[in-house]
Write a structure and sequence with these properties.
The protein has 252 residues and is α/β, with parallel strands linked by helices. It has helices at 3-9, 29-40, 52-62, 75-83, 108-129, 155-174, 191-197, 201-211, 220-232; strands spanning 20-24, 44-49, 66-69, 88-93, 133-144, 179-185, 240-243.
Length: 252
Amino acid sequence: MSTSTIRSVIQHEPELLDQTVVVIGGSAGIGFETARRARANGAKVILTARNSERLKHAATEVDALSTAAFDATDPVALERFFRNSSLVDHVMVTAGRPYYGRLIEMDLPKVRDLVGQHLLQALYVARSAIDKVRPGGTLIFVGGTGGRRPAMGMSIAGAVTAALPTLIANLALEIAPIRVNLIAAGFVDTPLSAELLGDQLEKRREQLRTTLPIGRVVGPVDVAALAVHLMTNTALTGATYDIDGGQQFVAE
């Protein structure tokens, strides 16, 4: 029997069949692609986002089970969402954006709030979801790798980048058997990246195409594939998984 024949004979059930995946920040970019991939793997998906119109469009695209429009940085709204939710299997959190800026230019009250949002959001989600995620399910958070390298304007991004892996590892112990993992992404070609870079976007893409070991730019579908793997591989918890195409090893 040929290899192609064997492949056609063996049929695998979708890995997330009949499981429920919540994507917080699921209307675009990494969150949306994760929802799409989870749905393709048999999951029922619940999307949340701040922008109700964009959320409605995304929900139609992935045939979402339900949606909820709220600001994920608001702990009251976050707690209310989970309180009103049924049991789910996985929660993916992609909401939020990095902060870049030199010390002299920082809006310190804004910085204080942003640092709190990045770190406390994981705590808020974990505490709110602990009674709503089935044992063996996952909480997946998204951070970055760029802040590991000291650079001008990277003080806040670097501090958050350093803190998140430790926080996630400790949460994995505290709320076990729910699994907790962190995806640390480099540059990902998303609408948020386009918004942050503006007319410098194509220049950045070309720079990465010519310097990254993988020879291309990392996209949302790459991160989504990793997220679904973290959901389905029940041996993984408390760890940080880099996905940057080798960006950390290339001189900027």
